Fold Ethylmalonyl-CoA decarboxylase.
Amino acid sequence: MAKSLLKTSSLSGRTKLLHQTGLSLYSTSHGFYEEEVKKKLQQFPGGSIDLQKEDSGIGILTLNNPSKMNAFSGVMMLQLLEKVIELENWTEGKGLIVRGAKNTFSSGSDLNAVKSLGTPEDGMAVCMFMQNTLTRFMRLPLISVALVQGWALGGGAEFTTACDFRLMTPESKIRFVHKEMGIIPSWGGTTRLVDIIGSRQALKVLSGALKLDSKYALHIGMVEEVLQSSDETKSLEEAQEWLKQFIQGPPEVIRALKKSVCSGRELYLEEALQNERDLLGTVWGGPANLEAIAKKGKFNK
């Protein structure tokens, strides 16, 4: 019955964006020409985006450009999209940790690329490219955590908001410095920040270019927890242990839960309920469900 309902469901355009991979917010109808943007970004090399996939179902995505505080070069922006596509197709994955190399998260965009892409048209094109990428990242069926070590500045601060959760080391700081650069966040950071801490707090953080230390970030709800260690290796281990409590169980169940939460956040009520129903059809009567019923009979506290 559930499978037949799934086949006959009528999906809206917004719902299809959540169901299908590879779909972007912007297209040529918006004046966005992806291949042209990619050619421009390719002109600015430096650094890399590294992905390690663990047997535990946790991926570790590392922003690796330590000589520039892990600033995003053009090539790194392209590689981020490539890694997102790879993660969209990682069916065994359940969780993801995003961190920066050498105990620093990211200082945002590489200024060499920013200076060379100085026209409003260039700015809009990169804006649409990164909004596309980070929206796809946000919709990944993986529970994601930003591990903030050192500084997360500008675009780096924006990237943290694309993760489901944020953890900070004791000495780390998050700062949206865009106002001091004469711009506003353009990778979707404002929209996501409002969702995380509310419009009043977001306005304070952005207009004041506030330095959010770990204590203040925890106070306003920007982060979930302040870790014990500032050591690069130990803090990663802490983040992995923190994440493991939320990804226990079969990948298909964790991934369906994440998709369901995404639909609840992004869709109208009726569409979200329909999407929740359709996702249920992918796990009800499945191996994990039948095994749990056989073991427990019913849930006991």
